[in-house]
Design goal:
Elements: H1 2-12, E1 14-17, H2 23-50, E2 64-66, H3 74-80, H4 83-93, E3 97-107, H5 133-142, E4 152-157, E5 168-170, E6 195-196, E7 204-208, E8 213-215, E9 224-233, H6 246-255, H7 258-263
Antiparallel strand pairs: 1-7, 2-3, 3-9, 4-7, 4-9, 5-6, 5-8
The protein binds 2-oxoglutaric acid.
Length: 271
């Protein structure tokens, strides 16, 4: 079962895991998400009244985005180190995973896609020669694919995402294609062989950052609500605004697990 999942992840460049967030935690995630969405909505509305441009993760008239999210509630840190998704991701990425950014993402009903078909990275693989001997040995013990991934993004469905809810969509297998240019389509649905990724609340999508992807128009009568986490390798660039600082950082250093501190980019955990 798991072997099949890793094979699909490697060949298709993405995989969906249902129930990644267990039921009791999902209720806490939803409560925290709803609160943050409510509290930040006035500022988002003010922004889009003045400025129609799109920023990071498509923030703008078609998407309400809050980043970073970790300092808004500790449950968002728990999701960053979700044991199910991290255990899967590190067997494709290696022992030195680190989070580089995170966001809360609301795509209100009736809004058009906040992005076009694109890929996030130029490369799909991590060069094992960039690791020291102990990381290379750890990789040999954990790996389930030939070549470690450079970047894995993990999106969590906070509420159900259906075909019409502007789902995150991909072209399976495109993460390994040589083409540098992605064809432009006015109608995003014209992309051949694309897949709209749907699922119930609590599901997670793990995907290689080089896969061709987009969001679709939200033609549903409900919002799409996701938590987004982006992981590369320890020591690589993190977005400064996503690095916890000051007293928040000190508390995390005192309270959180070695894995969490590695994912935050503070220090490598020992294995
Ligand atoms: O919101 C979406 O579904 C698209 C996300 C995206 O384009 C990205 O993470 O690079």
């Amino acid at each position: 079962m798991t072997d099949d999942l890793f094979k699909r992840f490697d060949e298709d460049g993405y995989v969906v895991v249902e129930d990644a967030i267990p039921g009791d935690q999902l209720a806490r995630v939803q409560a925290a998400f709803d609160r943050v969405e409510e509290e930040t909505r006035p500022a988002w509305l003010e922004r889009i009244a003045k400025d129609k441009s799109r920023g990071s993760y498509g923030v703008g008239p078609d998407a309400h985005v809050v980043e970073p999210i970790l300092d808004q509630d500790d449950v968002f840190i728990d999701v960053m180190e979700n044991p199910v998704t991290i255990a899967l991701a590190e067997r494709m990425q290696g022992p030195d995973m680190m989070m580089i950014d995170n966001a809360l993402h609301v795509k209100p009903p009736g809004k058009v896609a906040h992005t076009r078909w694109h890929k996030d990275s130029k490369i799909w693989e991590h060069d094992v020669n960039e690791w020291d001997a102990s990381d290379r040995a750890a990789w040999e013990n954990m790996r389930v694919c030939e070549t470690p991934y450079h970047k894995i993004k993990i999106f969590f469905f906070v509420y159900d995402v259906d075909f019409d809810t502007g789902p995150f969509s991909v072209v399976p297998g495109s993460h390994k294609w040589d083409e540098q240019e992605i064809p432009r389509y006015e109608d995003l649905n014209e992309m051949p062989n694309h897949v709209r990724i749907t699922g119930p609340a609590g599901s997670a999508i793990l995907w290689n950052g080089r896969i061709w992807h987009t969001a679709m128009d939200n033609t549903d009568d409900k919002a799409r609500r996701l938590l987004l986490y982006n992981y590369t390798h320890f020591g690589q660039k993190q977005y400064d605004w996503c690095i916890p600082k000051g007293e928040f950082r000190e508390r995390l250093v005192r309270e959180r697990s070695p894995l969490c501190k590695q994912l935050l980019g503070f220090e490598r955990m020992t294995r």
